[in-house]
Amino acid sequence: MSLDSKILQILDSSACLSKGQLSGYLSRSLYPEEVRAVELHLSECPFCSDALDGLEQEQDAQKVLGNIARLPVLPPLAPRESRVEAVLDKVVKTVSPRTQQDAVVPAKSNMPEKGAAGTMRETGTRPPASGKWWKPLGIAAGLFIVIAALWYLRPESNDDHKPEGYIAENRSLQATGVQPAETSGNTTAAAGSQPPAALKNTAPVPDTGAVKPKKTISARDTVALKALATESKIAVKDEGARPAANSARMADAVSGAGVAETLKAAAPAAARNEKTEEAAKSVADKEESATDKKQTARQDNKMSDYEMGVELYKQKQYGSALLYLKPAQRNAADPKHYDAVYYSALCYKNSGQKKKAVQLFKKLVEEGAPQKSSAQKQLKELGED
Amino acid sequence: MANRQDQDAFATLYKRYAHLTLGVCLKYLRDTAASEDAVQVIFVKLWTDCSQHQVRKFKPWFYQVVRNHCLMELRKKNPSQKTVAEWEWEIVEFEENLHHKIKEEELLLILEDCLRRLNEEQKLCIDHFYLRQKSYSETAVLTGFNDKQVKSNIQNGRRNLRICLKQKWNNQQNT
């Protein structure tokens, strides 16, 4: 420290001694630096110096200092004009610095105790409780922003955030290999009046394998699908026990027309509608279990199985053809029963199972089937009479 | 009911000055119980009458209030008691605004001149305490004074320096 700064210490001023400083100085428990600071302040503050003199007179100064911890009981202040004027002066003092010198309350000083005087001044100028309502408002605004951010950043692929109808629609579309309706373009187009008419461009059932599934559907189809999804939701609420049937109806809307295309040669319109329903039901069952789906498809798609059997026979896949022809072959009431028996016999014949082929040809002859003459020719070829 | 903020401010003042008030009361009244009562009375009076006074500097004002209360109590017992010299208000205010009025180089020159004008006892104590950075007890050992004499010499010498500074400042302003 230079000599100049040491001389200027004579004019320095510092904060009044705290109770701890006073107590420590009296008990001589302060560090030398703290003692120096206390003595520098004592040299310039008669208040603290007098206080120290008084406490040094007291034998048990520490105990006396410990007794002044409590605030005195303050009497209630009656509203008086002077207090009102004091408050007004505080307000005026903050507005006009020129009036600060004449303020009634303690002014902010350059002395060390400016904290105390400043506290009085600041408490006087602070608007009473005006800032309290900002706290809940700020908290509410923060919560709103957090919720909005979470909603905005939610995972797009999560179906839980989407409406129930949208989920059902997507499931049915995924089952048939069709993209969701959002990708199909114009969703504001007018809705199709009838689902079958609206679903001319929809994909067929994958089980048939005859027609490749289409990737997109038209806007009209989308609207129809949405209507069906809503309808199915209501039905689930009402019945509760038949979700598969409802999903089958939706699948019917998607894939029924495609199945009908495969059967367009022979089946009548009513039968086609029935078959499309059954095909759709098989799609719904497929969602639940793969094995159940296959069995259901075989049972419900007799005609398609027969056709498949014929197709496979033409492709010389006799083993597979026999599997598809078997249902119609065993069911005597089936309109394609004798056809199925005939083609099965041909499959057996071409696959080298002569006994079974002869057995089936004989059956056709005995029962007088339309294929009786052809069966007789085959029997002759096989060396049977 | 008073404003809560006023109560907080009052609590701050009490925390900052209650122990000092007690010390001053002990110095004048020389009685612990009377001093503790005096502290309570002074702060209650501060709470009720603060708005009736014009207070520029709280600490000198409050020190004066405490001393006046103690002297009033002493006069009740001994009416012939003389009043103690009051705080030098003008000097205090002058000192607080000194840095706005005088440049540092000029202030140092004036201070050195004023130091030479102090009596030997005060000059010696101030030299040891401020310029040689000695404590009260060290100064007492080095000068041969007791602690109270050292303290008194330092405080009086400091007060004389401030008076000298103000006089020189006024002379400069007049010339």
Gist of the model:
The complex is a heterodimer of chains A (385) and B (175). With 385 residues, chain A is mostly helical.
Kindly report the average pLDDT value of chain B: 81
Indicate the proportion of strand residues of chain B. under 5%
Number of helices of chain A: 19
**Portion in helices of chain A:** 55-70%
The counted number of beta strands of chain B is 0
Describe it for me?
The complex is a heterodimer of chains A (385) and B (175). Chain A is an all-alpha fold and 385 residues long. Chain A has helices spanning 3-8, 19-27, 32-44, 46-57, 61-66, 81-95, 114-125, 134-152, 164-175, 195-198, 219-239, 243-262, 269-288, 290-300, 302-314, 318-330, 337-350, 354-367, 372-381. Chain B is globular. With 175 residues, chain B is mostly helical. The mean pLDDT of chain B is 81. Classes of the chains: A mainly alpha (385), B mainly alpha (175). At the A-B interface, helix 1, helix 3, helix 4, helix 6 and helix 7 of A face helix 1, helix 2, helix 3, helix 6 and helix 7 of B.
